[in-house]
Specification:
By secondary structure, the chain is an alpha/beta fold. The chain has 6 domains: 31-91, no CATH class; 106-268 and 454-479, Response regulator (Rossmann fold, 3-Layer(aba) Sandwich), CATH 3.40.50; 271-394 and 527-561, Rossmann fold (3-Layer(aba) Sandwich), CATH 3.40.50; 595-741 and 943-1000, Rossmann fold (3-Layer(aba) Sandwich), CATH 3.40.50; 747-880, Response regulator (Rossmann fold, 3-Layer(aba) Sandwich), CATH 3.40.50.2300; 895-931, no CATH class. 30% of the residues lie in helices and 21% in strands. It has an 8-stranded mixed sheet, sandwiched between helices. The protein starts with 19 loop residues before the first helix and ends with a strand. Residues 155-511, 623-1027 form the Receptor ligand binding region domain. It is a multi-pass membrane protein. InterPro entries: ANF_lig-bd_rcpt (IPR001828), GPCR_3 (IPR000337), mGluR (IPR050726), Peripla_BP_I (IPR028082). It is found in: Membrane. It holds the Pfam family ANF_receptor.
């Protein structure tokens, strides 16, 4: 009816529209009807992509009489969608059965011990999981009190609430009080998750301090968490409840992924910022060899691994890595360190937990330099002489005078905080009545002096930021003159998302008189670089901004201080050899926001970081297709001629050479995003925050390595060439798409070909790499389903000897008399085909079917080592479905090394491609300056040009959709990049969402869109090799 009208009598022409499938799917999802023969009536409908039908509850009834039979009888329904249970206790005769645990169960220990809580009532309540104690020996139990950076945060939290409710801050609520519900998670993630589950499933909670007011879950607006691993668990858990989580302490790099943790904020920067500063400091000091030591927790391991990755980009070697506890005692760790040749040790650990034990075990007086990711200023004075000249990074954390005044009014006797007495005894080393630790008796008077904990200001800012966002949401829902909670705030289903949107754009002057705001949902703050003296005092030696840029105040002075420090490796350190030459050559098109393209302009070099000769296949022409697409968009051509597409926005492009090296590709991306490699050309510098997406690389292995980096950073990536099936894992690679079809589709194409010609008995040869291994499994699974017999299979290159394996495998192929169709699922099938060509038992009568890794490569047709196979027409080749883009050739036509300088490799490619020397026309072999690349006899447009262009167009469409989403206010779209778009923590998630929704007609006049598994809708061509009429020994590809 939608396409052909309500009175349609047949299929009309409009029904062939490209979007027919999507509209049909939308209509199917709207379907609702009564299921036949149901009593009472049962309605069928969809909830998302699933049927919203209830579950039937059956009771098993045992027959008491011989003529009866045992059977299940329906006793009711449970409907998860309407949250109704149509079963009563009377329906299930349980005979007094009840769930019990005769003794305190270890798994439930959190219910019996250490589940004290503090509840300060309010109209709205912030829940908080503190780490008052360390983790205990049991799965849910608690250990010793955290006297530093732990228990005191419960009082900081109470102080912040009091400040807001009393109106003593510029962040305030009108007629609304903010309450707090505090628990002790004991640095124990399972315990914290169990507590949150109890709260959300109806735990009975009443106010502390004598009030009988009870907590209601409907008042809860957010959770506060501290420990990194706990925060990861909690953020994953309450995301499903659309509940906001804010952390003043969780610095885990894993939490950088704001799509996976879509309701998460933190009032400190990520550890990835500090790690970039540590790596940059090591590089600035000229140290080439480093040791690492880390705490045995996931956050410290993530930081260590990221540090190592960054150092690789600088050509710096981690000669040894140690983990506290895991690698034995601290003495054992130190013996390993002292056996080495370097005195530079990078430490990833919270100082209050491991630093002092680490320093205590330091046995000799050698001047080791520690580069730490946490401030060490609070260590015991006994260890000051062991940290001389060491450095650490710290947020600027001035003493909060108001909190000092507040704490000096609290006594153990008057406090309603269940943990304050233990904290008081810990700080003053005394015993309150009822404690017996042989310490002197406490006076009971308020605490007068203590060291302010590291996360005091971030904790206050977490509460203030939530309060400010709640205030802005109340204004939206209840009006600017609101006084209390209105019905819209209490009942609208988008209140949580509104709070997060307001947190994205808020800013306020915090209690230390610093401006606070979020950038990408993290505090927009930098760090101070501190260097320690023998007195334990810290001297400011530099600053580190949020982008990871390190500024040293006196680099020459630091170099003098460290001139005697050993950073060497006198043993075999070959595994750390790197070469960063030419890492920063790139082409640039300036813009407001950037797409980065990754291309193999050169072949790989002698090591993972160097480059070799010009790459003949899928190299520079694809880079130019990238530049063509950027210019096409900026010139408002074709589908971008609509003034509503990217209005007021100029799209920028950076194209890099990855030189067929997965290591180089991953390091380039990691170092660009960390700020360690600065993209500057002609006075223009590209900030990492302005990079919206990456396009590339070409091959699967490089793409996997790059995806591992970008997925952590929540940055979209579209490959124009990687077809490996591993990348189909959309849970692992949430930010990955590809404009090409994947190998699962190629496997189906090969199967279809075999079935059409009834080739049901075949042999299979695969390579031992990221192409052959997963490809083999995919093909075999499909062959089994389609009743195609894989009689024999071979793996080439498993021992690293591809040439030897090729000869052996061809000899084995020849022995098989019935299965003469051979599938080659290989990264490079040429060695095997060269062997087959000279084997008379194979080169006539066998058919070889090669995948797109060979592709319709014209060089194969002229290879003298394949003449027998070509002549006998024993080759079938698959390649991606494609077509030439005439506009691209027109773009490339006028470019010469003289007039085209944007591409730093264009002259080198031109000379290689045309086998000439550009410049003086009188020299032998001089290039004909009138002959451009598209006019050359051997020029064939690369089949992947289309896929590069479609990838770039997809990103542009995604950016356009994200801009319209974030920059539309009161149904009016603000042209250009609005502040909300620039600062939004969800910007790249929205770009990714927009890319997934693209559906356009590309330059081949075919619809282009992405399937649910992240690959494009395109397929494969199948080619046969045929002779050229009238030209003996000349061959061509025929599309069959």
């Amino acid at each position: 009816r939608q396409f052909c009208g309500n009175g349609y009598t047949s299929v009309c022409a409009s029904f062939a529209a490209a979007n027919r499938g999507q509209i049909l799917l939308d209509e199917i999802k709207k379907v609702s009807f009564t299921v036949e023969d149901t009593n009472p009536d049962l309605r069928f409908a969809f909830d998302g992509n699933s049927a919203a039908l209830p579950f039937r509850v059956n009771l098993y009834e045992y027959a008491n009489l011989p003529q009866q039979r045992n059977e299940f009888t329906k006793i009711g329904n449970i409907n998860p969608w309407t949250e109704t249970v149509g079963v009563t206790d009377a329906d299930i005769p349980l005979s007094g059965t009840s769930p019990t645990c005769a003794e305190p169960c270890l798994a439930c220990l959190y219910k019996f011990n250490y589940l004290d809580y503090s509840y300060v009532p309010g109209d709205l309540v912030i829940g908080a999981i503190f780490d008052v104690h360390y983790k205990g020996s049991g799965p849910y139990s608690c250990g010793e009190l955290r006297g530093k950076d732990g228990a005191m945060y419960t009082e900081v939290f109470n102080f912040a609430l009091q400040q807001i409710n009393s109106g003593n801050t510029n962040v305030r609520l009108n007629g609304v009080t903010l309450g707090g519900l505090s628990f002790d998670g004991c640095s124990n993630p399972p315990r914290a998750a169990a507590i949150i589950n109890r709260v959300h499933t109806g735990m009975e909670i009443k106010a502390t301090g004598g009030s009988m007011e009870r907590f209601s879950i409907k008042d809860l607006v957010s959770w506060l968490t501290y420990d990194s691993e706990t925060t990861v668990n909690v953020a994953s858990l309450v995301k499903n409840l659309d509940m906001t989580v804010v952390s003043p302490s969780a610095t885990s790099v894993k939490l950088d992924d704001k799509q996976e943790f879509s309701t998460f904020f933190r009032t400190i920067p990520s550890d990835s910022v500090v790690v970039r500063g540590m790596a940059k400091f090591v590089q600035e000091m000229g140290w080439k060899f480093v040791i690492t030591a880390n705490a045995p927790d996931s956050a410290s391991r993530e930081s260590r691994d990221y540090f190592r990755e960054l150092l690789a980009g600088y050509g710096i070697c981690v000669v040894a890595a140690y983990e506290f506890e895991t690698d034995g005692s601290m003495e054992t760790v130190w013996r390993g360190i002292e056996d080495g040749d370097t005195q530079v040790v990078a430490v990833f650990a919270d100082p209050e937990r491991y630093a002092e034990d680490f320093l205590e075990a330091k046995m000799n007086s050698d001047n080791y330099i520690f580069v730490a990711n946490r401030p060490w200023g609070g260590v015991d004075p006994r260890y000051y002489d062991k940290i001389v000249d060491s450095v650490s990074f710290a947020l600027r954390s001035p003493t909060i005078a108001q909190f000092v005044t507040y704490l000096r009014t609290i006594t153990p006797a008057a406090s309603n905080n269940p943990w304050f007495s233990a904290l008081y005894e810990n700080l003053l080393a005394c015993d309150l009545p009822g404690s017996f630790t042989d310490n002197p008796a406490c006076t009971g008077s308020p605490i007068q002096s203590w060291r302010q904990d590291l996360r005091t200001l971030p904790t206050i800012n977490a509460v203030y930021a939530l309060a400010q966002a709640i205030h802005l949401t109340l204004v939206e829902k209840c009006g600017s003159n609101y006084n209390g909670l209105c019905s819209a705030f209490l009942n609208d289903n988008n209140v949580q998302s509104s709070i997060r949107a307001n947190m994205d754009r808020l800013n306020f002057l915090d209690i230390s008189a610093q401006m606070f705001e979020f950038f990408d949902r993290e505090a927009n703050r930098g760090f101070e670089l501190l260097k320690y003296s023998s007195s334990g005092s810290a001297q400011l030696k530099g600053t580190l901004d949020r982008s990871g840029a390190l500024t040293l105040s006196d680099k020459p002075g630091l170099e003098r201080d460290y001139q005697g420090v050993k950073s060497q490796c006198l043993r075999a350190c070959d595994e750390c050899a790197t070469n960063n030459a030419n890492m920063l050559d790139f082409s640039m098109i300036t813009g407001d926001f950037y797409i980065v393209g990754l291309f193999d302009v050169h072949k790989n070099g002698s090591d993972p970081f160097s480059c070799g000769d010009i790459n003949d296949k899928h190299g520079l022409p694809l880079l130019e297709a990238f530049n063509f697409a950027i210019e096409y968009i900026n010139n408002d051509q074709g589908m971008f001629s609509d003034n509503n597409k990217l209005p007021g926005i100029r799209l920028g492009g950076i194209a890099l050479d990855t030189c067929q090296s997965p290591t180089r590709a991953a390091n380039l991306v990691a170092n660009i995003q960390s700020g360690n490699l600065v993209l500057t050309k002609d006075g223009n510098t590209v900030q990492p925050q302005r990079i919206e997406a990456y396009v590339g690389p070409m091959d699967t292995e490089s793409t996997l390595r790059v995806a591992d980096v970008l997925n952590q950073l929540a940055i979209p990536q579209i490959s124009y060439g990687a077809k490996g099936v591993e990348l189909l894992d959309m849970d692992k690679y949430k930010y990955f798409l590809r404009s090409v079809p994947a190998d699962d589709k190629q496997a189906r194409a090969v199967i279809s070909f075999l079935k059409k010609f009834e080739y049901n008995n075949i042999q299979l040869v695969t390579s031992f790499d990221e192409i052959g291994e997963p490809g083999r499994e995919e093909f075999k699974n499909l062959a089994l389903v389609n009743k195609i017999c894989v009689k024999i299979e071979y793996v080439a290159g498993e021992r690293g000897d591809m040439a030897g394996d090729a000869k052996r495998i061809v000899q084995e192929l020849a022995k098989e008399g019935t299965a003469k169709v051979v599938i080659l699922w290989m990264k490079d099938p040429l060695p095997l085909l060269l062997e087959a060509n000279v084997n008379p038992s194979v080169n006539n009568g066998f058919m070889f079917i090669a995948t797109d890794k060979w592709g319709a490569n014209p060089e194969i047709l002229t290879n003298p080592g394949l003449q027998n196979l070509l002549t006998n027409r024993e080759l079938v080749i698959l390649d991606v479905e494609t077509a030439d883009i005439p506009k691209f050739d027109e773009y490339l036509e006028p470019k010469t090394p003289d007039n085209y300088i944007r591409n730093p490799w264009f002259k080198e490619f031109h000379e290689h491609f045309k086998q000439c020397v550009w410049g003086d026309a009188t020299v032998p072999g001089a290039c004909d300056k009138a002959s451009t690349i598209p006019r050359a006899e051997n020029y064939v447009q690369d089949p992947y040009v289309l896929y590069v262009i479609n990838a770039v167009f997809s990103v542009a469409e995604g950016i356009d959709r994200a801009l319209k989403d974030l920059c539309t206010v009161d149904n009016v779209y603000q042209r250009g990049a609005c502040n909300r778009y620039v600062t939004s923590g969800e910007r790249r998630q929205k770009v990714m969402s927009g890319i997934k929704q693209v559906n356009f007609t590309d330059d081949t006049h075919q619809p282009f869109f992405y399937l649910e598994n992240g690959q494009s809708d395109r397929g494969f061509h199948i080619y046969n090799v045929t002779g050229v009429d009238g030209s003996p020994n000349s061959f061509q590809y025929q599309n069959v």
